[in-house]
Amino acid sequence: MAFQRNDVYMSEMSLPTLSVITPSYNQAEFLPRTIESVLSQGYPALEYLVMDGGSTDGSVAILERYAAAGKLRFVSQKDAGQSDAVNQGFGRTSGEIIGWVNSDDLYAPGALLAVGEYFAAHPETEWLFGLCPIVDRDDRTFKGGVTRYKEFWLRHYSYQWLLVENFLSQPAVFFRRRLLERVGPLDRDYHLAMDYHLWLRMAQVAAPAFLDRELAYFRSSGDNKMSLQWAKSFQEDLDVAARVARPGEGAWIALHRVNGWKNSVAYWLLDRLR
Q1: CA 191 → CA 99, 138, 167, 186, 215, distances in Å?
Q2: Which residue segments constitute the domains of the chain, with CATH numbers given?
Q3: Is the per-residue pLDDT at 9 higher than 50?
Q4: Distance (Å, rounded) from C-alpha 72 to C-alpha 243?
Q5: What is the value of pTM for the model shown?
């Protein structure tokens, strides 16, 4: 099984094939919710692949049930980290459009259809992003100030400000496979800012489109990777921006450094006010 298709719906509109990849490791608590958020989309040309890193918490049994029902494909084997798992997923899928959603994040209802329709109507668009509120471990939205701050910059996107900080939320970004082939896969040396590195490389060759609607929900459970390592993440973001910046863009990197200090203080305060 590669793509799930609804032939009646497909007769109404020619939508691009869409591959969704979920990297996962020991996320049995959240994995079923992530899977259901993908499968409930009803997208007519969906290829769904879960790259499991050899989980030992019951995740594989969950994946086996969905795979037996023909709902998804999965691979469970040790990998070299999240970037490696996603890259393997890129190579094992074939959809024209690609998205990846981590095993504790969620897609918003109707997100994939909105994405597919936009790409079908705008063949010149190489990648796009949308809104992505933050949810807690019980799927309740919170940290509204962070979300509103990011949404301001989403609505005022510029490549220069993307050099200053990563305001794109990874699960709400989708791109054409041809663009990925042009700029290359994730850098396995990055464990927190690998998506930011990819966004900057994409932005240097193609301006993204913006869908002013919720496409996904980023989970901040208090014990996931980004929740625990935000300070390290800001430093890795700075390293990425400095590496990717072209001649004449040094001032934006200096601003990134200052902005990173501001964000570090803000997140430190948020942690203590929770």
Answers
A1: 18, 26, 17, 10, 24
A2: 7-273 (3.90.550.10)
A3: no
A4: 37
A5: 0.92
